[in-house]
Amino acid sequence: LNKTVAKIDGAAEALKQIAKSGKKVLFVATKKRAKQVVADKAASVNMPYVIERWPGGMLTNFPTIRKAVKKMATIDKLTNDGTYANLSKREILQISRQRAKLEKNLGSIADLTRLPSALFVVDVLKENIAVREANRLGIPVFGIVDTNSDPSNVDFVIPANDDATKSVEVILDACCAAMQEGLEERKAEKVDMEAAGEGNANKGKRRASKARLDKSDEEAINASKAAAFIKEDEEA
After folding, report:
1. Which portions of the sequence form the region Disordered (predicted)?
2. Residue 193: inside a domain
3. Rg from Cα positions in the chain
4. What pLDDT does residue 30 have?
5. Which of the chain's ends, N or C, has fewer CB atoms near its CB within 10 Å?
6. 1 or 79, which is more confident
7. CA 155 to chain centre
8. 226 found inside a domain
9. Domain total for the chain?
C-alpha cells in the first residue's frame, strides 16, 4: 500500500506539471467498470478521454483521426446553415447516424488538436494497443498496473487493482486534483504576467512622459538662453 501511495504521489506530481504547462493528457479506459469514472474525472480537468473502442492509429495516425473529428464539425455546419432543408429524409437519417457514431467514438477528443503529451491508462493489458502506440511515439504512459499486467512499457506505474472501481476512483481523484492545481497555478502565473506586462507598459509610458518633459524643459531653457543672447545683443 505504501508503495502504491508513493507511486500515486509521483505520478500526480508529473501530471500536475504537464497540466501546468498547458499540455493535454489523454485518459484511456474502455473497460465497463471504469468508463464513467474516467469520463467524469477527465472532464473535470478539461482533458480528453477515450472510453469506447480505441480507434486503431489514434496516435500513430493522428491526422486521419483529426479528419474524422472535423467531419463532425462539417455535419454540424450543415445542420446550422440550412443545408439540411434541401436533403431527403433518408439522407438526413444517414448523416445523423454518422454524426452519432462519430460523437460516440470521438466526441470526447474533439478538442484534442495535437498529440497528447501523456497517456493515462486504467488497464494497460486491455489497452495494450494504446500503450504500444504511445511507446512508439515516445509519449509517456501513466498506468494503473494490476498483477496480471506487464509494467515494462509504462513510464509511471501505479500498482493497483484495475478491476476495483473504488480503487480506480481514488487514484484518479488524487491525480486529477494535482492536475487541477497545475491548471490553477498556470492561470495565476498568466494573471501575474499580464499584470507585470501592464506595469512595464505603464513604466514605459512614464519614461516617455518624463522624456517629453525633459525635452520640453530643455527647449524652454534653450529658448530662454536664446532670448537672453538676443537681449544682450540688442543692448550692445
Report:
1. 189-219
2. no
3. 30
4. 93
5. C
6. 79
7. 20
8. no
9. 1
Print the domain residue range for 148.
Answer: 2-181
Query: What is the spatial distance between Cα 147 and Cα 155, in angstroms, rounded to a whole number?
Result: 16
Pairing of the two strands 25-28 and 49-50? parallel
C-alpha cell at 91: 439522407
Owner of C-alpha cell 478538442: 111
Q: Is there a domain that residue 115 lies in?
A: yes
- The SS3 assignment for 17 reads helix
Looking at residue 226, its pLDDT comes to: 42
**Pair 28, 6: CB distance under 8 Å:** no
pLDDT at residue number 223: 47
143-191 pLDDT, tens digit per residue, is 999 998 989 999 999 999 989 999 999 999 999 999 999 999 999 988 8
- 222 domain-assigned: no
Provide DSSP, 57-117: TTTTTHHHHHHHHHHHHHHHHHHHTTGGGGS-HHHHHHHHHHHHHHHHHHGGGTT--S--S
Between CA 8 and CA 139 the distance in angstroms is: 19
* Residue 43 exposed, middle or buried by CB count within 10 Å (0-12, 13-18, 19+): middle
